[in-house]
Design brief:
This protein is mainly alpha-helical. The chain has one domain. Helix content is 74%, strand content 0%. Helix 2 packs antiparallel against helix 4. The longest helix has 41 residues. Keywords: Membrane, Transmembrane, Transmembrane helix. This is DUF417 family protein.
Length: 176
């Protein structure tokens, strides 16, 4: 078999590869696990304190400590993460709910990514500052990839919701 024939066979094969089937599941439920884990941790004093310097320096969230305690905001933040995880996980059964989860996750990671700019000390001062990142900066940098993943999951859920709506419309037409 020539290279061209092998390539054509691979491209024209009707079945999806195992990787093609598994990768979206790992992406979706991997993020669900991260959100559940981090969300549950926000119910601890340790984690609420751990995020407080990012929240306090944020022009978007800094005001919340005027209305609630650090621990109360940690619990609120954790609740949002847990709800977001549940909505993302529901995609096979409730794709429209997963669309909402994708929006929440995208906004969440966009907000945490903004901490790179608003939090003093994300650049490592002893190494000359930005672009050399401190531990905080390194921790926040991953949110670029998580934002991309959240946006991909949002689009995937939108596609699933459209497919579900189309199938329901076809079914209604066939039963009328």
């Amino acid at each position: 078999m020539s290279h061209n024939e092998a390539t054509a066979t691979m491209i024209d094969s009707p079945g999806k590869s195992l990787t093609t089937n598994v990768a979206p599941l790992v992406a979706r439920y991997g993020l669900v696990i991260v959100l559940v884990w981090f969300g549950a941790m926000k119910f601890t004093h340790y984690e609420s304190q751990g995020i407080s310097h990012w929240v306090a320096n944020s022009p978007f969230l800094g005001w919340v400590y005027n209305t609630m305690s650090i621990d109360a905001f940690g619990r609120l933040n954790g609740t949002v993460e847990l709800v977001t995880a549940a909505l993302l996980a529901a995609k096979p059964w409730l794709p429209k709910a997963s669309v909402v989860g994708g929006v929440f996750a995208s906004l969440f990671f966009l907000t945490t990514l903004s901490f790179m700019i608003t939090t003093p000390g994300t650049g490592e001062a002893s190494a000359g500052g930005f672009p050399v990142l401190s531990a905080d900066g390194e921790f926040l940098m991953k949110d670029i990839a998580l934002l991309g993943l959240a946006l991909w999951l949002l689009v995937d859920a939108i596609d699933a919701a459209r497919r579900q709506a189309t199938l329901r419309a076809i079914f209604r037409e066939s039963t009328d």
